[in-house]
Amino acid sequence: MQITSIELYHVSIPLKTTFWPTWIPGYPQTHNRFTLIRLGTDEGIEGYSAGSAMGIERQGLGDLIAGYLLGTDPTDIDMVQALLKQAGFLGWRNFWVEAACWDIKGKKENKPVYELLGGKARPIEVYCSTGEMHPPEQRVEELLAIAERGFKTAKLRVKNKELKDDIRHIEVIAKGVGNRLKLAVDANQGWLVTIMEKIPAWDLKRASEFAKACGDNGIIWLEEPLDSRDYDGNAALKKISPVKIAGAELNYGWDEIKIMMEKDCFHIYQPDATFAGGIAQVMQVIEACQDNGWESHRDRSEAQGYPGKRDQDSLEHEKQERQPVGLPPDDFSSKSIPVHVGQFFF
Ligand SMILES: [Mg+2]
C-alpha cells in the first residue's frame, strides 16, 4: 500500500464562552483549534489524525511532509516513524501525523487500533481534569457537583505567582471536598508558556515545598512540577517527594523519555502520543513502565477528539489499571460546540 494524497485542514471550533487555560496563563482561548490530516492511499483507504494548533501556523506543512510520506507504505509504522522524525529535524514535530497511519492499518485489517496493539474494549475509569484555576472556594462547589456525577478523582491546576497562594489553593480545596474526591494537581511547569502573563518557573526548592504540601493534603499525584528537560531536578524531586510525581507529557518521544527512565525522574510517565513520538513510541514507554514497575497514564486536557489520543488512552489504561484516564477539562468541554469552520489550505 502507498500513500497517494495528503490533505490538511485548519479546524477552528468556537467556544460558547472564553476559556482561560492555566497552561497558557492570561491567554483568552476563544476557539478549539487543530490541524486535521487526511491521508489517501492507492487502496482507497483513508486515515485521519489531528494535532493541536494555536492558529494556522502549519500552513504550508504539506510542502514539507509530502516529500517524506507520498509513496510510503502507511502500514509500515517503523518507516513512518523514521520519516516523521526526519521531517522534524528542521522544525515542526510531526508525530501527530502517525496516528493517521494506525487508522489506515486498522481499517485494512478491519480491527480497531487498540486491538492491533493488544488491547480490549471495556469500561475505564476517568478523572475530571480541570483546565482553569478558579478561586478555591468556588472550585470546591464545582468539584462537589462533579462528585455527584460519579467522578471519583479530579485534577486541579496551580499557577499562582507565589508559592503560598498555590499551597492555600490546594489546602482549601482538599479540606472542602474531604473524602468525596481524590485529588491530583498539575503544575504545568514541564513546558512553561509565558507569552501573556509572566509566571515564574519553579525551581527544585519551590517544587519540593509544594510537593510536601501535596503530601500534607492527601494529593495522590503531582504533575510536571519542573521543566520537563530538567532530568536531574526531576530525579532529585522524586527521591524526596511524599507524593507521586508525573511527567513526560510533551517530551520528544522515546529519545528523551529513555533518559528520564535511566535517571529515574518520575513515578508516573504520561506521554501525549500526538507530541511525544506517536502511538508507537508511547507504546515503548508503556512497555518500559511495565518492565520496571512504573506507572503510565495520560492527561487528556489539551484538546479533544483526536483519534490518536483516544486510541492511546484506551490502550494505556488497558495495560495500566492503577490510575484513571483524564477527560478534557470540565471548564473546556462544557464550552465547546460542534461547529466545523475548517479552512482548506493545502
Ligand atoms: Mg498535564
Which key terms come to mind for this protein?
single chain, alpha/beta, disordered C terminus, 12 helices, eight-stranded parallel sheet, Enolase-like, domain 1, globular, TIM Barrel, 346 residues
The set of bound ligands, ions and cofactors reads:
magnesium ion
Helical amount among residues, as a percent range?
25-40%
Q: What would CATH call the class of the largest domain?
A: Alpha Beta
Q: What portion of the residues fall into strands of 2 or more residues?
A: 15-25%
The secondary structure category is alpha/beta
Reported CATH architecture of the largest domain: Alpha-Beta Barrel
Can you tell me the number of structural domains? 2
What name goes with the CATH superfamily of the largest domain? Enolase-like C-terminal domain
Number of strands: 12
**Strand order, biggest sheet?**
10-9-8-7-6-5-4-11
Overall outline: globular
Low-confidence stretches: 299-321, 336-346
Radius of gyration, in angstroms, nearest whole number? 20 Å
Could you give the distance between the termini?
Answer: 23 Å
Largest sheet: 8 strands, parallel
| H-E order | EEEHHHHEHEHEHEHEHEHEHEHE
- Overall average residue pLDDT: 88
